[in-house]
């Protein structure tokens, strides 16, 4: 078990209190010792792992500052920053945080649970980010009556001075502000599972009604993934990476029908998933979406190595006041997306057919949209803040997904390494090399991150293979990736299965019996007919549309070259357009060539 920690000599003391359970508010108090000069404080504008400005300051209410119980002037410098007048004694800052964001990226509080990421609730003391942070978590009486418990990867300490009521506070320590905000907290009465993998405690915290969810099976499957990944990066000693922070890793899993996704942290991850994605004890057959859930678990756990410790150079010290930019998200998210299913395959949690179908889906989404010719992978990484996380109706025409195309580039690099080294090396060898060079001692020794050109040099050094042409053609430029060539190495090929079926080349969604256009693909049949995003489709060939499925079924009755009459509302004006069905989507499946194959 994690040993209790003792109090450091100099630190920043935070107290977070469940202040207004039904109004969804926390009260945070910060105590500072050394305040001879005016003190600047700020709240992060974004959370590492999610590259978009979120302006968490919008949820801060009633911020005040005191010294010896006397008010100090506190002035707002910008939307997320305040300056406090200088004084010759201790300073106390008090503020209220409204918390009703039920995603994995914010803070939440209601009568059933409390959850927060540090980026949403803890002000940062400018120039004191390096100091240890002590956190007292104060549970309201209603919470104690409900026997709420606290779950976090932060180590606990038990000798805080002036702690008069040991049941009132739960006190934790982070060795810096960066560690503090990278350690989410779940509070309530969740169902928990626990297992030990190579000496490290792994705790799974299920928040929300479980409804016969098979937590034992989920725990067994997650353990397989964890042990496979630990053994992958450190096959000799099988040492988990989290020992630089403690001896525990926590999966916080929020059963939430509104979200599916996750975010990585140094010694934990927060996952939002729909209940229907998880297996139940009363039905033997697991949901088809369960593999997607396990893939997400695999993805976020893999980030414990790749991005939490093996980092881009610009991520060594985040600038939490503005975007921290990198050209390398195609590696850190793309390679992680490649390995997420590779590990499920190696653990036998999916079979090869499932893996190939998933790979084919990524290929189809990457090659069928015009954005692949307009944005490079490096540009996609760099502009994630303004494009990937702020997608609009034109994104499919102007951007490329660094997760999915990045994973295909990882597949290609893996293939080329295997081919050129005659199967002596693979991408696995590069990943272990990166771990030893950048990640293993990241929080222990001098910190070093990857620069833009390191991937070529590191691949050459670890495997002897030169991948510069892959980077130049498919990462720095927009050449079509030779996916068929890479597949052929494994005795596989792409086969188009939709050569004759016409399509409108639009994406739609249903809303209250209306079929609404979401995206229109450039230069496709709908584009050429003048159909736009936001248009409401009413009828095709005078047949009423009630759903997207109606739209699909009617279009299927036609062949390439036919013309159809579409009635629609455009900006509330009823119009009709003629669409010539000249295009069929190129939908591919991965098939065997029948030739001798190398194993994936």
Q: What is the fold's blueprint, element by element?
A:
Elements: E1 12-20, E2 25-32, E3 39-42, E4 60-67, E5 70-72, E6 74-78, E7 81-84, E8 91-98, E9 107-109, E10 113-116, H1 118-121, E11 124-125, E12 133-138, H2 141-145, E13 149-151, E14 169-174, H3 177-181, E15 185-188, E16 191-197, E17 200-207, H4 215-233, E18 248-255, E19 261-264, E20 268-273, H5 290-302, H6 329-332, H7 334-346, H8 352-367, H9 377-382, H10 395-398, H11 404-420, H12 427-439, H13 454-463, H14 468-475, H15 483-488, E21 492-496, E22 506-511, E23 514-520, H16 525-529, E24 536-540, E25 543-544, H17 548-556, E26 563-570, E27 573-580, E28 588-592
Write structural notes for this entry.
This protein is of the alpha+beta class and 600 residues long. Helices cover 26% and strands 26% of the residues. It is built from 17 helices and 28 strands. It has a 7-stranded mixed beta sheet with strand order 5-4-8-2-1-12-14. Strands 22, 23, 24, 25, 26 and 27 form a 6-stranded antiparallel beta sheet that branches. The protein has a 5-stranded mixed beta sheet with strand order 16-17-18-20-19, with helices on one face. Helix 5 packs across helix 7.
